[in-house]
Amino acid sequence: MRREQLTHLAVHDAGVGGAQGVDDTDALVHFDKAAALEPGLAWAHSNRGSALRALGRLDEALTATDQAIALNASYAEAIANRAAILQTLGRLSESLTAIDQAVALAPNLPNVHFNRATLLETIGRPRDALAAFERAIQLKPDYIQALCGRGFTLLSLGRLDDALAGFERALIAAPQSVNAEIGKGTALQLMQRPDAALSAFERALRLNAQSARALTGKGNTLRLLKRYDEALACFENASALDPDDADALCSRAQTLKQIGRTEEALTLLDAAVVAPNHNPHVHHNRGLILQSLGFFEDAVRAHGVATALKPDFAQAFSDRAAALLDLERWTEAAASAGQSTALDPNNADAHYNHGTALQHLRRFDDALADFDTALRLKPEHAAALNNRGLVLQDMNRPGEALASFDAALRLNPQ
What is the pLDDT of residue 346? Predict the structure, then answer.
């Protein structure tokens, strides 16, 4: 082997060591040197692209990765890296094309399937993402990032027992995994097991006291336990660690509203949107608080921003419809609620909102179908039972209407 190649390998290996540690800048210095020594080696440029991506220098990272692919068009890992950069840049369609190409070239590389899974989750294809995570785990059973990714995807699909089992499996593979503890806590919280959830989040914080996500999870669990002051302290600490953490901000606002400090919650969210804020959940939560204060026009606008930022945000469409109902804008309310039910057919409140709008538009058969769907999904939905009774009354079916009113009163005597 030539001396230049030996030098290149030594420099490259030093860069890999840096990339596996914490100093991405140091890794980039080594990869820059490696690429300069051997400009014709694709993997030198690919690793340089990875280091640039880690530093947030995305345009340069894309250029370096493109150089690698130009040198070796079948270099799957470089193509997968390119897909990840395009994903970060928001060029999701191009990213999906690239990652599918990488999978076709290297079907047995677990990290390529993992990257594809994270992209599929981002673009709202959780079932496909789950299959990709499972393929990555099949190829590498102790792949902790894939095990955690699979768990969070199962949470998004509502498969709580499977998610919990997945996070416990991840903790067997990596007992020090903060993400796995956070996932376990989240699953337990959603399963209404707050004491066990709190223990999981506290273990995560013992592993990493600076984890904003663990603090937010702990705060949400304390809120379930009605320990509101402690919950607010967690959210404030999370925001101090990560000022861009929308989950901590929204959870803090929700807690303030829950304990009657609604104006304070609105002020908090108003401050967050003074500067351009591209997180749809911040605007959605602001809309909910504006609704509770009776500012319905402002609420409609806030929910509209949320859905513009996240076109598949079913709950925001439903809540926008509710605000439009308060404004008696029946046609717009029906359209917004219809978008929500199309995105999430299992949202009982969205069907209720849709039915209520159609009721006022005197489309009684369609309204009745919506109320029946809402009640199938949520039998204790007293408002749906009441409105169903009103529709049946308008349809001259008094006996059925009375039965519906009686059922509503049993659920809510007020």
Answer: 87
